[in-house]
Design a protein that fits this description.
The structure holds two protein chains of two kinds. Chain A is an alpha/beta fold. Chain A is 36% helix and 28% strand. Chain A has eleven helices and 14 strands. Chain A has helices at 42-49, 71-76, 93-103, 108-122, 137-149, 167-183, 195-201, 219-224, 239-247, 270-279, 294-302; strands at residues 5-14, 17-27, 31-35, 57-62, 65-66, 78-81, 155-159, 187-191, 204-209, 212-217, 228-235, 251-254, 259-264, 283-289. In chain A, a hairpin with a 4-residue loop joins β12 (251-254) and β13 (259-264). The longest helix of chain A has 17 residues, at 167-183. Chain A is elongated, with a radius of gyration of 23 Å. By secondary structure, chain B is mostly helical. Chain B contains 15 helices and no strands. In chain B, α3 (48-60) runs parallel beside α10 and α6 (81-102) packs parallel to α12. The radius of gyration of chain B is 23 Å and the shape is globular. The two termini of chain B are 44 Å apart. The chains are: A alpha/beta, B mainly alpha. The A-B interface holds A 14-15, 47, 50-53, 72-73, 75-76, 78, 80, 82, 84-91, 95, 99-100, 102-107, 110, 113-114, 116-117, 120-121, 125, 133, 147, 149, 151-152, 154, 179-180, 183, 185-186 and B 1, 3-4, 6-16, 18, 21, 24, 28, 32, 109-110, 113-115, 117-125, 280-282, 284-285.
Chain lengths: 309, 285
């Protein structure tokens, strides 16, 4: 897939303080997860891509369009769902979404038709004539999604879309995101604190930490790679066992005093591990097949060189 | 696409011209304003004065009607620059009240509900946003100020003839320019207050205070120091000075025209600065 977002030494300062520090990279996933702890610069990056903050140095491109020179074209092709509550009180939801569609350049009649469609798509069809300010939090989130996609954007930017949602509404939101992703008509940039949401929806992730890129993973490629992760819990000192599996050609990591994570190469299988355990006189208490979860990737990215978080 | 076909699709149809998009804001705002019966009643009431003025002008030139009513309108009121200055003062007051009705929620409602990010993430600039909001007020205010003023002027010219028009053209131009100065002043002040405060009561109180308190101060300063320069504090008195100059009348208070224009321009510039600071998708903390 072509690059949807390119970051070219992008630096942003707010109030004289550097927030984004020369980010460089290219993102090409169908659904890109943007992760990072509070204050990492996720929202600032989104705002900069939308032109709310001017870059201090460098630039970024969305679908090849530069944020410094083609901002209007970028905004025409992007749909944005902000994190905070955002609506116009006193309007029915269909009026609100229609108004937003018209601001995006749709003629009045087409905007009305698209507003109805978008509201049916997100599941607010039956409630579309109610004023937005009377909606529940979950309904407001869905209304925000509807206004973001009403004009059929090439890139949908979702900032914490599942914030504060109850489990059924959260599931509905994630189903919608996956449905848009699988439709292939629009790419998605999803910023979230919830790793499970990102893991379930995204095929690429960008992890920010302290205004810098801490990690960038192609989750889809990671899933496809047949890394055979085995997590083993032992009774006794696993140092000799670890040496034994290393001698077999396995990559390993000791996670705690009694746990070892092992990646099995081709030709090596679980019985070989039992053989090593027998040789080193170690009892295997539990063995599970496990690949690196997004949580592992995230924690690894957050770790300092000396092992601190 | 039919509404039962619940899938996400791109929009591939025609788009509206970019220059016209700021007009979407007043279209929706005006519709919502006229949902209030109180406002609609007030707005209709604003045309009472132009109607009376039109009747007076008509009576001036209709001998039969004058004979029937047994009055001599031309002896009661002369249709000249003073006649139109009174009209400006009355309609200017109505315009200020109409601003109180309409202006408060224009920007504050969007700021309070974080809606600016939704406007500005689209191909819609801050300038277009402000222009759209200004158009709401300017459109409504124009309907009760310079448009009826010019219609009355044209009516009088039509009834009297070309010679009156030629010798009194400055009245028409003066009303047009004078009203626009007042409308711009009202619009910028109201939008700036709406961008600072979130509550309608606070915005309207401040707007009233901005026009009433300086008038009181002006009276005090002029009384204590035996001067007329206290008028420099009051925007409505300064506007009256400009109107008087435009209509070739004696300005009251006697403040130099240049000073009046300077103060009004500075005030509008301050309001403009406030708008540029406040109308943002997100505050930079």
């Amino acid at each position: 897939m072509s690059n949807v977002i390119e970051l070219d030494r992008l630096a942003v300062r707010l109030g004289g303080r550097p927030i984004l520090k020369h980010l460089t990279g290219a993102l090409s996933g169908g659904c890109i997860g943007l992760l990072g702890p509070n204050g990492a610069g996720k929202t600032t990056l989104i705002h900069t891509l939308l032109g709310f903050h001017a870059p201090h140095e460098g630039t970024a491109r969305i679908n090849g369009r530069d944020i410094r020179s083609d901002l209007r074209a970028i905004r025409s092709s992007v749909g944005y769902m902000p994190e905070r509550d955002a609506f116009i009180p006193g309007m029915s939801c269909v009026q609100f979404v229609r108004f937003m569609a018209e601001l995006s350049g749709l003629p009045s009649q087409a905007a009305l038709e698209r507003a109805h469609e978008a509201l049916f798509f997100v599941g607010l069809g039956e409630a579309r004539y109610r004023p937005v300010d009377t909606y529940s939090l979950g309904m407001k989130q869905l209304a925000k999604l509807a206004q973001a996609l009403v004009h059929g954007p090439e890139l949908l930017i979702l900032d914490e879309p599942t914030n504060g949602l109850d489990p059924p509404t959260r599931k509905r939101m994630l189903d919608l995101i996956r449905s848009i992703r699988d439709g292939g008509r629009s790419r998605i940039l999803l910023s979230s604190h919830l790793l499970l949401d990102v893991e379930q929806s995204c095929d690429e992730i960008l992890i920010l930490k302290d205004g810098q890129i801490a990690a960038q993973y192609d989750l889809e490629a990671e899933r496809k790679l047949n890394h055979r992760f085995i997590e083993i819990e032992v009774n006794g000192d696993p140092t000799a066992f670890a040496g034994g599996v290393a001698a077999l050609g396995c990559e390993y990591a000791m996670t705690g005093t009694r746990r070892v994570k092992v990646v099995l190469p081709e030709g090596i299988d679980v019985p070989d591990l039992y053989a090593v355990a027998a040789r080193t006189d170690l009892q295997i208490r539990r063995l599970s097949r496990k690949r690196d979860s997004l949580e592992d990737i995230f924690l690894k990215a957050m770790e300092f060189e000396d092992g601190r978080f | 696409m039919a509404v039962f076909d619940q899938t996400f699709t791109h929009y591939a149809g025609p788009k509206t011209p970019e220059w016209s998009r700021f007009l979407i804001v007043p279209r929706y705002a005006v519709r919502s304003v006229f949902q209030s019966r109180l406002f609609t009643g007030y707005f209709m009431g604003c045309f009472l004065c132009p109607l009376i003025y039109a009747i007076i002008i008509y009576l001036h030139h209709n001998a039969e009607a004058i004979k029937m009513l047994r009055i001599n309108v031309s002896e009661i009121v002369a249709i000249d620059n003073a006649f139109f200055q009174v009209f400006m003062t009355i309609q200017g007051g109505f315009a200020a009240l109409l601003t109180l009705f309409v202006a408060a929620p224009l920007v504050s409602r969007d700021l309070a509900n974080n809606a600016l990010a939704l406007y500005l993430c689209r191909p819609f600039s801050r300038a277009e946003y402000v222009l759209g909001k200004m158009t709401v007020l300017l459109g409504l205010l124009s309907a009760i100020t310079w448009i009826p003023a010019l219609l009355l002027f044209a009516f009088q010219s039509f009834l009297v003839g070309g010679s009156w028009l030629a010798s009194n053209l400055y009245i028409g131009v003066g009303m047009f320019v004078g009203f626009w100065i007042w409308l711009i002043l009202l619009t910028f002040t109201a939008l700036a207050m709406s961008a600072i405060f979130k509550r309608k009561f606070a915005i309207n109180s401040l707007l009233v205070a901005l026009y009433i308190i300086p008038m009181i101060l002006t009276g005090m300063i002029n009384g204590i120091f035996d001067t007329e320069l206290g008028g420099l504090l009051s925007f409505n008195l300064l506007t009256n000075v400009v109107w008087a100059h435009l209509l070739h009348r004696e300005p009251q208070p006697d403040v130099p025209l240049g000073a009046a224009v300077f103060v009004l321009t500075t005030f509008v510039a301050i309001c403009f600065f406030i708008l540029t600071r406040r109308v943002r998708a997100y505050d930079e903390v």
